[in-house]
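Q: I'm building a small set of examples for a reading group on sequence design. Run inverse folding on the following structure and report the sequence directly after it, with nothing in between.
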């Protein structure tokens, strides 16, 4: 005789702990070498790979994972009934259509069985709440895979500066002043150091006429994937290429009253570069920052006010003349929109790392 007992046993997960989870995105507006991004997770490792538009493998990042963390992830899939979800999700009637955001596929593989949920376009509002939670957790794991300890970035930057021509020639008293981790893929570390040279000038000045005077310097370094990708001293000298930083605009020319490259209050601050940020269906960093309650306004801010406040507060970057414009105003497709702004030359590389590009 069979006896059924209710409430005496703990519910077991429907998903095996030997499963493999894959989070894949492809298409959309992103770098050519990152057209396909795939995160693979099992109970021992988290692996993130990127491929180009032809599917050619580009880069691989790997971090260890453990049984406990993987069980928690499996429970998240179970709690949100992943196996019962639709095979695909798309915009419903009345929802806005977003473009250039690509496609998402989340797959759960157990032996010979695979469950895949596709979201096209990849936009969180098209997903049920449970899938949003799963996607958010997998994105956190992707960030974990791409990250490396701040202390390691500081060691890489310091070692590089000490061996670079300017500092190694006559520099001393190297000090870290600021360290920010930028919201990029892969993760980038923006570090600011100060030091003093015993003579004026930059680079290896052997055989040159130099000013015999203690000269303070400020160097801004970007470390990405454990490599130095940018190094600018005083906003004037590119320590990587050993040449002066190009001057995009001459803001000292005040003869033309209609010169739109001159911005009140910025004239004495240095040269300005025009930059742009493509508007997609995804939430921007400043929108997320505002929604999380990090800033309060007396009244709802305009996009320009919010963008300016966000970069000034979070990244200590001053933006000028922030405006929204259609792509056709920039000789692009009229279906595209952009934010256009101006930034000081010495902040240009940092803004590029944050997703902005120079205005062509």
């Amino acid at each position: 005789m069979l006896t059924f007992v209710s409430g005496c046993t703990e519910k077991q997960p429907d998903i095996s702990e030997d499963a493999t989870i894959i989070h894949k995105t492809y298409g959309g507006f992103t770098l050519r070498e990152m057209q396909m991004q795939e995160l693979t997770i099992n109970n021992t490792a988290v692996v993130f790979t990127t491929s180009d538009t032809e599917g050619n493998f580009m880069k691989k990042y790997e971090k260890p994972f453990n049984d406990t963390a993987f069980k928690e992830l499996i429970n998240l899939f179970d709690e949100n009934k992943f196996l019962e979800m639709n095979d695909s999700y798309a915009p419903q009637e009345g929802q806005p259509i977003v473009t250039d955001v690509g496609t998402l596929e989340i797959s759960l593989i157990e032996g010979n069985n695979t469950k895949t949920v596709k979201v096209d376009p990849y936009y969180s509002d098209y997903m049920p709440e449970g899938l949003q939670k799963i996607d958010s957790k997998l994105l956190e794991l992707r960030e974990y895979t791409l990250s490396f300890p701040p202390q390691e970035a500081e060691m890489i930057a310091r070692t590089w500066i000490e061996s670079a021509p300017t500092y190694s020639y006559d520099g001393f008293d190297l000090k870290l002043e600021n360290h920010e981790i930028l919201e990029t893929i892969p993760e980038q570390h923006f570090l600011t150091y100060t030091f003093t040279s015993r003579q004026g000038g930059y680079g290896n000045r052997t055989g040159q006429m130099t000013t015999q005077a203690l000269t303070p310097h400020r160097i801004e370094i970007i470390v990405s994937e454990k490599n130095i990708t940018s190094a600018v001293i005083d906003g004037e000298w590119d320590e990587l290429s050993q040449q002066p930083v190009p001057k995009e605009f001459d803001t000292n020319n005040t003869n033309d009253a209609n010169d739109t490259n001159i911005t009140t209050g910025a004239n004495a601050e240095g040269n300005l570069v025009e930059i742009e940020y493509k508007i997609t269906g995804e939430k921007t960093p400043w929108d997320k920052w505002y929604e999380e309650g990090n800033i309060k306004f007396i009244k709802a801010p305009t996009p320009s006010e919010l963008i300016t406040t966000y970069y000034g507060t979070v990244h200590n970057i001053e933006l000028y003349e922030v405006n929204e414009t259609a792509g056709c105003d920039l000789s692009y497709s009229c279906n595209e929109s952009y934010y256009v702004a101006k930034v000081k030359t010495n902040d240009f590389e940092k803004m590029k790392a944050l997703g902005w590009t120079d205005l062509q």
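Helices lie at 67-79, 129-146, 150-163, 165-170, 285-291, 303-314, 348-353.
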